[in-house]
Records
---
Amino acid sequence: MTDSPRTLLQPTAAAAIGLVDDALSADQLVTLVGRCRVVYEGRATSTLGPGDRLVVRKPDGTMLVHTDEGHQPVNWQPPGSSCDCRLADSGVVLESKHENPSEELIIRFETITHAATFDPNDPNELALSGTESDLRDQILESPSLVEPGFEPRATERKTSAGAIDIYGEDTDGRAVVLELKRRRAGPDAVSQLNRYVDALTRERHADATVRGILVAPSVTDRAHRLLAERGLGFVSLSPTE
Amino acid sequence: MTDSPRTLLQPTAAAAIGLVDDALSADQLVTLVGRCRVVYEGRATSTLGPGDRLVVRKPDGTMLVHTDEGHQPVNWQPPGSSCDCRLADSGVVLESKHENPSEELIIRFETITHAATFDPNDPNELALSGTESDLRDQILESPSLVEPGFEPRATERKTSAGAIDIYGEDTDGRAVVLELKRRRAGPDAVSQLNRYVDALTRERHADATVRGILVAPSVTDRAHRLLAERGLGFVSLSPTE
DNA sequence: CGTGCCAGGTGCCAT
DNA sequence: ATGGCACTTGGCACG
């Protein structure tokens, strides 16, 4: 039971509202192009003066306001948001509300250039590779990539400071904590590793040394210094060649 | 010198390519809706099987592929990417390339439901409030919000571990490091504060204690424990009331 | 340019 | 629901 795609060029406000209302009740995706102002209030607050933008409303409640620049929408509303479309001051107004967190987005159109709807059918999932999870699998497959004789014992091993990416032992039987990063690592990655090493050291009463190794394609200078200060190691590995 | 907005419903491949090519040379924004497959290769690699999606190309080179769900595009290309539109296997193919980092996105359409272009005029900037910068201004305005007698001395004070949000002194003349977060803070915020306190302690040789205070609306349990372990403080403050 | 860090980050999965 | 963290994170400001 799919509805036909529709498109309107320079529609009247009434026609645009009709289109949007139909699309909302039919769980269609809507795109609107036109001159609008935007007000947001929620986790933060924002206002955006008049300009030509692309507005997208998805059937899952997502709303996006895109300007002519940049990857990110200038304003948006998360999935699960409601949408109300009405006439105000002879213009189309979209009002989207979300609860928990409480957020409200109001888009006031002066002009609508295009309005279009369609019924998306998208059964396929994205297959992504080159992630941290792939790097983890590589290491579990060939532990010697980390160092000769390294033996993984667990992944996601829990500590009081969080879960260790890979926990294992070296040839001398010492505990080894690996923190993995799919790309060049900075100070935050070193701190993360440091937290896990501290926590594990505390858990295994003091004396037995716990080694920590950051595994990433590379590290920044600052991160390198931090590693040295904390007595932590580094191994260069990339998720895919 | 603005071009008119155009829209096509169920265009032929040739018509769609004509529209896109015109839009590319006129620096217009393009939206395409239709059934497509997507392949990405760059910092990572991905494939996406056939489905109905919304594709947006912006004049700054940004490309977005949106499915029917979620705030984020399923695939994209950053600003500054090229775009080539051609016919292949009797379908429209968009090929976008980016250099540094090297990334390539290929979108193969089976069907095109809508194609539309317009010339965006968007002179206004977003005015956002409730940011960390607002929280900083509040504290500089009323330092006693942190604690009675607190005196800010500098913002963005440089240390070997990075820049301190607010550096100051307490009533006893002790150095105080503030790390600000606009929302509930987790372990990473504590580690960040800890890095700055360590660095500053090192710089001011040793004995003089350096205090560290995390300023945020709230902290998680784990973060609270970490603060205690490290002898760091916490003050509850929100960027806007 | 690279480094570091904020973001209305988002999304995923765990408890 | 909250927490902890990865993400093709994106974006900005600064050296």
---
Amino acid sequence: MSTLAINPPALGGTRYKEVKSAILAALSAGEWKGGECIPSEKRLAERFGVSIGTLRKAIDELCAENILIRHQGLGTFVSMHQRDRHFFRFFRVVRRDGDKAYPVVTLLDFRKARASREAAAALGVETGARVFQFVNGLALHGKTVLIEHISVPEAHFPGLTEAKLRNRPNTLYNFYQDGFGINVVETDERVSVGLASELESAKLGIALGAPLLEIRRVAYSYHRSAVELRVSRLNTEEYEYIGATSGADEK
Amino acid sequence: MSTLAINPPALGGTRYKEVKSAILAALSAGEWKGGECIPSEKRLAERFGVSIGTLRKAIDELCAENILIRHQGLGTFVSMHQRDRHFFRFFRVVRRDGDKAYPVVTLLDFRKARASREAAAALGVETGARVFQFVNGLALHGKTVLIEHISVPEAHFPGLTEAKLRNRPNTLYNFYQDGFGINVVETDERVSVGLASELESAKLGIALGAPLLEIRRVAYSYHRSAVELRVSRLNTEEYEYIGATSGADEK
DNA sequence: AAGTGGTCTAGACCACTAC
DNA sequence: TAGTGGTCTAGACCACTTA
């Protein structure tokens, strides 16, 4: 954990980008963990050998990416998942009237398996690599409306068991963070129409083959390394998916 | 079009927020139009009576919201729609293999009508207010896969006719900008499963009542004033909707 | 009162674009 | 060469939090 000043100005690009990379590297290395306070701006500026303004610009970008959170008078913190309404950054299902409710999650299945071609491609592992697969049912306002099929690479989640998953106190991404040091900071989602399988028919109380909203999500940690593939199917009779709220950044 | 310095520091909040508001007001008033270059940072800083750094912070936010675009060595410009790949900020349909193609648009219907309750609520007008309603068919790779039902308030689009709409040289939002001074800078979208009407059945070549991805969009101009309601239905056999690419801002 | 982030200044120098 | 935005500095003062 070197605390040396970073490289001279000209090499990697600009000073503040280098500072940003250095902070990201420290986060990846676990120097500061989820929810913790990082050193003050003054201290970090000294550590990296830049002015406060430059240091702030690096942190500005990390805050814009929801990787850090600033609190005036308190300090700058490593972003945690699902705190308060922050939860709805990744949970994008609302009732048609706009009401946002926290889902009640039930683990429906858990198994060790081999990565499908789709899962392997999404997660950046070999086809047939060891993965954990599990299925959640999510209830809103007392009714199950969403089924999630989740795959994660075994290599990133050593010691994961059905019991641990079932007994987690918080949300799944918080569990990833606390239990395995994996911080989900970004997701990509593709949406299409899918059909209800037997499982979904039974759990959602709809006909076999009934149309459902199908959401394929890949979740990423720092430096865009994939950590989870999730295929969700939503009954949109009473609920909707919140799509693009354009105005913020896209690439 | 006053060029006075803005208010003293304490009133509206912070200096740079006031500068930002003042720039937004000038944009709304049409002082600088789509694609035009706004005055240099130095000149604007003098005009508003703030330092360069403060002026830059205001412009930083407007660039982050895709309202302005900076070009080093050239100047700062009012954002235009659908230039190059910028088009795909609002067009969120891709082939399943990820291929992005520009749609070929066909106007299928055009009429004057009264706002439905949904349209009135979305657009912030009275139920029964005069609106234009029109329908587009969008073809990708030679096949029509998306039908758009669009409502816009007559009051904001004086003199709009079917002929003008049909003969527009560019995309719809560019037409709004050039023809009516309306800049779409933000959209909200809700996604669910819908069923094919007769029109969609005929144009998309699918069965009546077949499931389609239904996207309800409200488009906003500066200061979040609603200017368009659009209900789109997509055949997801070969195409998908790009949902949240979380990592950038959400509220 | 001490420490934090939030805002703001008044410049400097650099990289890029146009002429 | 002149003008633009991009980066960076070395502070100042303010607002907020905790004690």
